Amino acid sequence: MLQGKKVLFSGMQATGNLTLGNYLGALKNWVSLSDEYECFYSVVDMHSITVRQDPATLRKRARALLMLYLAAGIDPEKNCIYYQSHVSGHAELAWILNCFTYMGELNRMTQFKDKSAKHADNINAGLFTYPVLMAADILLFQADVVPVGIDQMQHLEITRDIAQRFNNIYGEVFTVPEAYIGKVGAKIMSLQEPTKKMSKSDENPNASIYLMDDADTILRKCKRAVTDSEGAIRYREEQPGVRNLIDIYSACTGKMPEETVGEFEGKGYGVFKEAVGEAVVSVLRPLQEEARRLEKDKAYLDGIIKNNGEKAGYFANKTLRKVQKKVGFPERIR
After folding, report:
1. How many CB atoms within 10 Å of residue 126?
2. What is the pLDDT confidence band of residue 153, given thresholds at 50, 70 and 90?
3. Which listed residue (5, 6, 187, 200) is catalytic?
4. Would residue 5 show up in a list of annotated catalytic residues for this protein?
């Protein structure tokens, strides 16, 4: 607990460009969580380098991601928004936790298997121990809750196992985190393969709407979205493309799916796709305008990076010093 609130930790990787799915599924909902939780939102750039990155591009994308956190409405005074790489406690705690994590546990991680298949020429130790760094991210701030999707649930489970194992040896050192159960954001699927989640790493440029796409690009991508030959706008699993567009329209307008179906009853896919595109443009326009404004205010952004990094470092060090003492590291002479 910090200041009487439970602690929430989350973060996004500084690779690729954020999609509409990232916004509607997560970022949009982060904005209101500071009323209930003490929130730490990290740009997890350390996780990004398990895959080879161009250094200049990674720095640029990390700053752009932090800027989008702010443009989405996350208040840097109420929340701690920081770069993972600016808080050395992430790496220091990860090393200690590596020594309390078993090879068999890491071998079972499905994400390691998936990424190894995609990057067969670069199966590095960082990719293998990725879940331990993720555990360190969460445990470093004594997080009570972590918003996770189905694909990350396995990582939260190993985090809980590591925390409980450490606590069983040394006492109640770590808060054992729970999955965040609250307002669930819309699950947005690919516009080209609607049985797959919309992804910022999709190689098909028409599959994802990116947060900084201009209006013409958004409208074009929506018009090209895969539907079916049925010609009827119904919210059912047998029509995944249409269902996905209904979810997007509903999330952007605040309507329920059944309201959307009623609104477009008897209308064709062309009319519906255009309306979806216009709804997305309307939702993203304020975010894009704020992002462009922030981009010009270097001093303001740098101040947030510095102050929030120091705040994150302060709380991280409180946990880290406690852990170092428990495992027997010599105390520092101050």
Report:
1. 16
2. confident
3. 200
4. no
Could you tell me which of 40, 20, 37, 36 has the C-alpha nearest to residue 28? 20
**What are the tokens at 54?**
């161009």
60 part of the active site: no
Average pLDDT over residues 175-180: 94
Tokens of 175: 């808060």
State the Cα angle at 333 between 329 and 334, rounded to 5°. 130
Rounded distance between C-alpha atoms, residue 81 and residue 71, angstroms: 12
Is 196 assigned a catalytic role?
no
The span from the CA of 276 to the CA of 219, in Å, is: 8
pLDDT confidence bin for 118, thresholds 50/70/90:
confident
Catalytic residue chosen out of the listed positions 28, 115, 221, 273: 115
Question: Does residue 189 sit in helix, strand or coil?
Answer: strand
Q: How many CB atoms lie within 10 A of CB 203?
A: 6
- With b for 16 or more beta-carbon neighbours within 10 A and e for fewer, the 248-258 pattern comes to bbbbbbebebe
How many Cβ atoms sit within 10 Å of the Cβ of residue 21? 24
Claim: this prediction has a pTM higher than 0.85: yes
Rounded (5°) CA angle 231-232-234: 140
Under a CB-based contact definition with an 8 Å cutoff, are residues 115 and 149 in contact?
no
Structure tokens at 118: 């995609």
Per-residue HEC secondary structure of 58-98 comes to HHHHHHHHHHHHHHCCCCCCCCEEEEHHHCCHHHHHHHHHH
Contacts of 274 (CB under 8 A, 6+ apart): 219, 222, 223
